[in-house]
Design a protein that fits this description.
single chain, alpha/beta, 7-stranded mixed sheet, 6-stranded antiparallel sheet, 15 helices, 18 strands, 34% helix
Length: 414
């Protein structure tokens, strides 16, 4: 398949130099996506959009998504008493389209807010950061790392769109009623594994290139004791009891510990304001439903999705759905209050998407453009697609008066 040979060799060499010649799936996913030279998000393999891309996001459809978010940010600014600056921190800004749509809309319609606005982008991918800087070069945006933001420094809103799903996840499996973690090794290293370690190949092994003088090897899954007690502690916090008879032997799923680390950093940097997270996912009761016995891991390659992360390595996106209950529970531990959770379609309708659809009938533009715009707006609403994404809003540092003011995006129209 279309794997990056240099990345396969780097992962394989990392495995062979690891103490047990195996790595967690989270480590494999981290390297496949974020290796500084060959990872999917670090290389020219990353393509977003309709033509030649692997996937598209809401900002690729039309500017309306960003403009409606801009209306919500405006209200947040007003609720907080119009602080100057009001910091919008976008985490994982993709191609910079969402930032472009938000800033242009504020500049045109709300100049006072635009003047008070401080727009910050935290971007891990050097490839995407370069594209963002080129697209936003005429707008007041600055780029930084989380480490550059002091604790309790932000009054405003941290927000992300389809970021958390790309964090590396630990995978686990139930074997004879016990929680076991899924590790990745190579077929070359299988003879080096302790006899007690049970080997499993859940998907057809891929023959890769590299690993020193060897030209053929396969990435293979094996199981072992959990790499950290945090996995069991996480399930306990969510009150997920895998020992129930409803969970079949061989049941497997994911735990996103990286998302919890990310949330703790965000909460630490936020003094007062909001955290807005948009992504595809479920509450824990649905995420860990016994009938979802193979987890939620998906790979995207040329607008097609499948569940095999061991092909197209470095040239495909790897994602897992977001457990929103985990973000809520861990957010409470980090002093983030739950403001509300809603589907994206309803969130956008509450912010005025329905009015925009109705207004299309009165716009003077070519019919083809009109139909294309209408289709884009309906895709934002589609409950089986983008409209079914989750929108989680959390807050920190708000007083009773500020907390009592309902956010527009969470106020459903009659």
């Amino acid at each position: 398949m279309d794997s990056n040979p240099a990345l396969c060799a780097a992962i394989a060499n990392y495995i062979t130099t690891s103490p047990q010649q195996r790595i967690t799936f989270a480590e494999f996913m981290e390297m496949a996506l974020y290796h500084p030279e060959y990872g999917y998000y670090s290389s020219d393999a990353l393509k977003i959009g309709f033509k030649g891309g692997d996937f598209f996001t809401s900002p690729n459809l039309c500017s309306d998504f960003g403009e409606l978010l801009a209306e919500q940010f405006l209200q947040m600014w007003e609720i907080l008493g119009k602080p100057v600056p009001f910091s919008l921190v976008e985490m994982g800004a993709g191609q910079g389209l969402l930032a472009l749509h938000i800033l242009k809309y504020h500049q045109q319609h709300y100049p006072d807010f635009f003047t008070a606005l401080e727009y910050i982008i935290v971007e891990k991918s050097p490839t995407l950061r370069q594209e963002q800087q080129q697209r936003l070069q005429d707008l007041p945006v600055r780029w930084c790392k989380f480490e550059d933001i002091p604790p309790n420094a932000i009054a405003g809103c941290f927000f992300s769109n389809e970021l958390v799903d790309a964090f590396p996840v630990h995978q686990f499996i139930l074997e004879t009623g016990e929680l076991r973690e899924i590790y990745v090794t190579t077929s070359v290293n299988l003879t080096l594994q302790p006899p007690s370690l049970e080997s499993k190949s859940f998907s057809p092994p891929l023959i890769g290139q590299g690993l020193g003088e060897r030209s053929n090897f396969a990435f293979v899954e094996v199981t072992g004791e959990p790499s950290t007690p945090q996995l069991a502690e996480h399930l306990d916090l969510l009150e997920i009891n895998l020992t129930q008879s409803t969970y079949p032997d061989g049941y497997r799923s994911e735990i996103n510990l990286a998302a919890l680390d990310w949330l703790s950093i965000v909460a630490d940097r936020l003094q007062r304001g909001y955290v807005l997270t948009i992504d595809y996912g479920y509450p824990a009761s649905r995420y860990y439903n016994p009938r979802r016995s193979q987890g939620t891991l998906q790979c995207y390659y040329h607008h097609r999705f499948h569940d095999n992360p061991y092909i197209n390595i470095g040239r495909q996106d790897i994602t897992a759905h977001v457990d929103f209950t985990a973000l809520e529970c861990w957010g409470e531990k980090y002093n983030l209050k739950n403001v509300g959770f809603i589907q994206q379609g309803l969130f956008l309708m509450a912010l005025g998407l329905g009015d925009r659809i109705a207004a299309l009938s009165y716009q003077k533009q070519p019919l083809s453009q009109l139909l294309q715009h209408r289709d884009a707006l309906h895709q934002l609403l589609d409950p089986t697609g983008l409209g079914g994404f989750g929108v989680l809003i959390q807050s920190k540092g708000l007083d009773k008066t500020e907390i009592s003011q309902p956010l527009k995006g969470l106020t459903l129209p009659e």
